[in-house]
Design a protein that fits this description.
Number of helices of chain A: 13
Strand order of the largest sheet of chain A: 13-12-11-10-6-9-8-7-14
CATH topology of the largest domain in chain A: Dihydrodipicolinate Reductase, domain 2
Structural class of chain A: alpha/beta
Oligomer: homotetramer
CATH class of the largest domain in chain A: Alpha Beta
Largest sheet of chain A: 9 strands, mixed
Largest interface: A-B, 42 and 42 residues
Number of strands of chain A: 14
Radius of gyration of chain A: 20 Å
Chain lengths: 384, 384, 384, 384
């Protein structure tokens, strides 16, 4: 396929943080162009956004239905190949369903759906559609996270015994001032059953399972609402058991004043350990049984020798740091490579399929439902 | 009192790690001299140690009873002023009791006693004796920990909302090879009800309560024994509630290969946060609500302006790092200053009394009994 | 002007590192599209590149002359607005001259020209053309570098006394294997009088002068060729005097095995100091006279309050790290905003003009000629 | 020899920083006791100090002559074994000479003498005396510095190409207020020809030569006096050539506001590099040719396997940090072990002789004279 992939977007209107990230990430490598969108439920806002993006006015739509109809009306060689859905959580399922059933590939922001039931339903829809669904658990796009996964997979730290994943952050109570994102994130009707644990706790869960290849089996969760007046949890501490007998801790918090976006993970095994932190993403520390710490740095020979996935997720030479956009772009890179393969009738390769999919989305929804149901007691993850 | 304090020691024979630390810490400032001891239950080992220490042979005793009798037989101006007890945990209570009742001040290694009952009994004995009892929860001897406490006390981070204290470590399963310390630490008859949680978990508990001034009220603990064949926990994860409504996490582990002695604490309040780590003890990071991090460095004007206790705990000018021995020596410095005051008939001042005492020891034993009893359920701390 | 700016490129063929960076950086914010190019002196390579980039074949040119003629033949509303020149150094001057004189704006990779004489000639050409010339000393595009400059400008560290700028790196001697970039960089006929000092030393010089606002007045330089067989310096150490009496050190090296791209700067003044390092670009440390270190983090209120330029150079919220591409894109952002202003007949504002220009390019060439002429003796910068 | 070594001290009166460090360092391991001294040229101050130290009044002397006479009058089994000289620089030579010639071993603070002539004279005196002379270039007492030296010696970083040693510090201009130490350090009649370069520059020189085993052969130095009214340099920048062709930079400064005692060194060779910094002394970073950084941590198996000298210089288990006092104590440990050996008629072993001696002192004085004579020109080190 010798052309750019054509991307549409739902959500991501003026002032939306994550919509802009999706656009930059998708287009970074020059293989995707944004050609259509329905950026807001308010048509004027949608058009304002289209204008800002120098989009063809005819492809700025007032509704998802109009967008699907409009794109299907175009010749195959013009219509969007995939759509990125970056609306509040309650929109994810119906919009994804509509596009998948209309024959479009989908990239979806996380958490995947409003609840677990929808998530399981979405799995069937994806399967039936034969289309690609990618979920932007973007932190697994970092090359050093891929290296961590590959080190664990290759047995470099032995049998995993302990996993500690932390995600402290602060969200000021700006939802009361009507700030766009904070507003819906703290509204249970739009966000779902969890607040902080849905928004960032699922990233922590996804990261831990991605790196270790181990599933959480049961959790004892202590959720709290520390900022008065909030309707959802803004802090959650969890004891966690993993399928191989490993124990761990997971916490996510949006009341940690002074912490910015400090996702961190440590994994310890019988033969060593490793630790990574999102705010300094270009390095990965590996602890040896002899007391040394071996720091891998993105882009070096040492990384490439262990992890083809990390090497593939690297654009710049060593010492020229990459960061959040580039990691996000790696989700898009792999997802769009898989979309290209599907369009071309090829089976995507393993490296191309290295992006979060509908199964990861189900895990995330299971996590949310489990921690919300725990109420301080041990509770098992639902099957499925 | 124009003389050195005379110190005796029980325990701390050849090869014992912590006994040597006590001796160096006590003598660092030149105000204490070791003059007597019963270093081992094996008389030859005790004498070997006395020899190594250039001690007068006559004051090397074969038993605690002999030591007490021998010292009491000396004129007041010769006999030891205080005794440091550094035996395995099961010896702490009877030996401390004997010395206190014989009129000697006592410095005791932690955890204070074998169980909570003994701890409560010891409180009465101390009170009745009028003597000083100091407990070497040495990590609160670090100047930057004192600064942290004073910052919290002065309201610099607002109301405390979240406390995360971590103590990962690795103890290789060398108890099977008969290594002295590992042997008794993993033996429930000598160590007490907890392994890892007693050995290092109590340090984490003590540090959290010292810095925040808040007591833990309930805990949900998940203890595990990860190294096969151990009889006591070697890993423990706890959800914690504090008296003011703050939530937190405490974990201690001796199966984290590659972690050395990585006690770390973060405290977040409504107005900011702070974080400190034992392996880089000369700095304290304070997180501001505006996104800055202010790093205080030991020995600087900025520290002294906030914390007289930190300034007092500082020997070297800024940039000349201090570390473990010096922090340990700070416990001794304050405790021996309080002992001097008591001998001189003075009331010790507030700064002199800044060392862990019998109340801290009771907290530690309450912590141990609580986490052992929890078995994955929420459980309240015992009163008292 | 309601449209994307149209960009052309000269150089940046298959395998070229910096050409790809220019393309990604220019297009990151969605306001620029690459529409034409002459990517290599070998026409087939140029076409291969155009193909990779999904470019219109008609706008892939075989020579600079053909490109200028071809673009001028297009209607104004189609032809490129500016051209990015990313060839080896010896091409910079003639190509920039040709485009400027043909009425195009120019973005130029550094160092600006082959020698100082060309640099001074280029100044005249730029002035006469009325066009924008931007030079990609990309490290000044980092927000925290802009914050550093503004802190110094606002007197926060007092009078500058000492400046230390270091740029250790390693370039393996791959030029002997014919690697594209290494090859020309070590060839005096293509690279100019300096090797390492031209390639990365000029970045160090530019960074120091940008942050401090002080010009170097004299230098004593010790250049060396450590890897046998190289024709140009691969290591250089300089003593530096600045116009206000400040003293400093500048070193750049391409023989520091294990250092990746470790540009670092420290500035000390009578009232404090600051330090920044390229490999962890999201923070800036400011040293206070009271011994504290205040760490600013990109995207926070604290940064925006001091430096509008840093705030403007920020895309992501705090804690979501930005890095090399984004800093590079900031040079393009300001340069293309200035180009838009010029096209619209507006005078660009101060913040828009915050990118390296022909004067910075002249400083760089003066630096190169000075260090090459020094030969271990103190030597003054040329006037002009 | 089954007894503590007896130590005397000259200098180190009330308020003196380094005298107290010497006392604590010498006594840390319990093998030395301070029994005599002449702590000040003012007898009352000397007695005040003796009193503070609980010393026998009879062994507090009013002059060096009285001290030598007094100690010689004691039976051999009572008199001091060695004396530590911690006076201002101008006192070092005559006092050391007097004690050596009277048959006492000597520990001397750095720089060794007032000028090079004295240093060379001292070498003869030491040789003739058959006594030990140790010089407290204390930074080479750090275990990780010993590890660094051994890694270089074992060829782990290949042939050394580049050495960068930095020692930024700030000394506030408190000499004008009569502060004891600052006063004499800035007085050329007491301090010698150099200020900052003598005080801390010699430490930097010593550290570089110790780790690399390479001698500096020529220097181009730019010394400055940045604080008005000072009579000696308070800032110095040097280009350095080493005997094997390696190039380097050395700077020392006492005008770097916010830097505390930030001695740092990086060494790069053909096969890798290493870096260490005094303010975080428990780790050493080793850069690999494959882009990894291997961090060694004091007390671990990995360190002991490479460096017996580092293992010997370690008291505490890994993770329990050691710092300034302990490093200083390592100089004393080796020196006093050598003194014991000499007393016992044994030849000290290689590990015991691992302390700075008269040859290092001569190098330091050569360094001072070279940098002072340079005046911005390249100049060779004197022979000898």
């Amino acid at each position: 396929m010798k052309r750019k992939l054509r991307m549409g977007m739902v959500g991501g209107g003026p002032g939306a943080f994550i919509g802009d990230v999706h656009r930059k990430a998708a287009c970074l490598d020059g293989g995707v162009e944004l050609v259509a969108g329905c950026f807001s439920r308010t048509p004027e806002k949608s058009r304002e956004m289209a204008d800002t993006l120098y989009l063809d006015k005819k492809r700025c739509y007032d509704s998802v239905d109009a967008m699907i109809a409009g794109e299907l009306a175009l010749p195959v060689g013009k219509r969007v190949d995939f759509v990125s859905i970056v609306t509040p959580n309650d929109g994810h399922f119906p919009i994804a369903k509509a596009f998948l059933e209309a024959g479009f590939h989908v990239v979806l922001d996380k958490p995947m759906t409003f609840d677990l039931k929808q998530a399981i339903a979405l799995r069937k829809i994806v399967k039936k559609s034969g289309k690609v669904l990618a979920l932007t658990h973007n932190y697994t796009g970092y090359p050093m996270v891929k290296l961590a996964r590959d080190l664990v997979k290759q047995g470099k730290i032995g049998k995993v015994l302990k996993i500690i994943v932390q995600y402290p952050q602060v969200i000021n109570p700006i939802e009361r001032n009507g700030a766009k994102q904070a507003e819906w994130r703290t509204d249970p009707k739009r966000s779902g059953a969890a607040g902080c644990m849905g928004d960032i706790g699922t990233h922590a869960e996804n990261l831990a399972e991605y790196i270790t290849g181990l599933r959480m089996t049961e959790i004892c969760a202590d959720l709290g609402t520390m900022v008065e007046g909030r309707k959802l949890d803004d802090d959650g501490n969890c004891l966690v058991h993993f399928e191989n007998g490993a124990r761990g801790l997971l916490f996510a918090s949006q009341v940690c004043v002074g912490e910015l976006n400090a996702l961190r993970i440590s994994v310890h095994g019988t033969g060593g350990g490793l630790s990574w932190q999102q705010e300094e993403p270009n390095t990965l520390s590996v602890y040896g049984g002899d007391g040394t710490i071996l720091t891998y740095r993105r882009g070096t020979d040492a990384v490439g020798a262990i992890s083809p996935a990390a090497a593939r997720a690297t654009r710049l030479p060593f010492g020229h740091p990459e960061a959040f956009y580039e990691a996000f772009a790696n989700i898009y890179k792999n997802a769009t490579d898989a979309i290209r393969a599907t369009i071309d009738g090829r089976e995507p390769g393993e490296l191309e399929l290295d992006f979060p999919n509908v199964e990861d989305g189900i895990r995330g929804m299971q996590f949310i439902e489990t921690v919300v149901a725990s109420k301080g007691q041990w509770i098992s993850f639902p099957k499925g």
